[in-house]
Amino acid sequence: MNKVPIVFCFDNNWELQAGVCLTSLLVNAKPDTFYDIFILHDEKSTFLDGKLNELPLRYGNCSLTFRCVGKEFENAFEIRGITISTYYRLLIPEIVTEYDKIIYSDVDVIFRKDLAEIYESTDMTGSYMAGVVDPSPDAHDYQNYIKGLNLLPEDYIYAGNLIINSELIRKDKIVQKFIKEATHSKYKYQDMDIINIVCKGKIKKISPEFCLSHAVRHCAIYQPEPLVYTKQALEDSLKDGIIHYTGAKPWSQYCPDFDIWWEYYRKSIFFDQKYYYDFFNRKMNDYDLLPLWKRIKILVRWFVFKVH
Asked: For the stretch 236-263, what's the b/e string if a residue is b when 16 or more beta carbons lie within 10 angstroms of its beta carbon?
């Protein structure tokens, strides 16, 4: 049996999305994989006795443990509507002490394959974190921002899908540095900036399959010479990589792979016929409500992209 520890951090606003995400994780688990799932939450969370507890009963290949983080980041900087729970991942090595290496994932994610292989094969010797780099070479504003943090864009990893070397982080007392940055600084990308700043020089770049973001997808399809990863690695991520909805969210609007999210929603413990119907019915009506000039703009964009 391969035991894979994995942590998620979210608040009440993301309970449904967490249920869909965890469903995709468990549905795609191999017969010999067992997921030891930890959920970090705040004191206001009301989902502890809710539907999520049905997951171990339904699938049997997982355990589920809830852990409260207290008020550590109560006054931390918030921006772009991203809540305080985004900082909870910084505490994982000291809250989930059972493991020396552990996976972290956001919940706006769909897993499409088992994680045991990448967990076991990723050598974390000398690295605090392992993650996926944004491979796009033409996002100039984004890259200039990263350079302004005294970091290299080709080394800057996403924070939504991580493999964490908890043993080394505890040994070097890195969590205390995370907390200091989170409570005394106002970074645009919050925990992601903090992880890259504090862990600079001890970050491992792994396959883009571990985080198929919008930027990874765009680069795989349109960029002939990617900055970081090989073309083959990017193409492999399109096939069965972990889908991370880093931009538009499929439960609120159409976006790449929105249909895959809804596929797992239908399989999840949160499936509700009315919620499902209302989304698609609303979207069908959206275009009818648009003014004429917006409809023309959509047609023009469709024609331009279709031609090119």
From this structure: bbbeebbbbbbeeebbeeebbbbeebbe
Nearest to 205 by CA among 240, 144, 235, 162: 162
Number of domains comprising the chain: 2
Q: Please say whether the beta carbons of 51 and 23 come within 8 A.
A: no
Judged by DSSP in three states, 231 sits in helix
Cα separation, 217 vs 215, whole angstroms: 5
What pLDDT is attached to residue 306?
47
155, 44: one domain:
yes
For residues 68 and 188, state if they share a domain: yes
Task: Provide the 8-state DSSP code for 262.
Answer: H
Task: Report whether 61 contacts 25 (CB < 8 A).
Answer: no
CATH of the domain at 23: 3.90.550.10
Cα(219)–Cα(246) distance, rounded to whole angstroms? 15
Distance (Å, whole) CA 253 – CA 80: 18
Distances (CA, A) of 164 to 71, 98, 101, 103, 168: 23, 13, 6, 6, 9
Which residues neighbour 99 within 8 Å (Cβ) at sequence distance 6 or greater? Answer: 5, 36, 166
Neighbours of 108 (CB within 10 A): 21
Render pLDDT for 80-122 as a digit per residue (tens, 0 to 9).
Answer: 545 677 889 999 999 999 999 999 999 999 999 999 999 999 9
Query: Identity (one letter) of the amino acid at 289?
Result: L
Residue 77 CA to residue 182 CA, distance in Å, equals 7
Strand partners, 243: 110, 212
Show the domain range for 120: 2-269
| Higher per-residue confidence, 284 vs 241 | 241
Q: Where are the beta strands (DSSP E) in the chain?
A: 2-9, 33-41, 62-68, 101-105, 109-110, 129-131, 161-165, 203-205, 243-244
- Do 204 and 220 fall into the same domain? yes
**CA 164 from chain center: how many Å?**
14
How many helices (H) and strands (E) are present in the chain, helices listed first? 13, 9
- Span 130-149, average pLDDT: 82
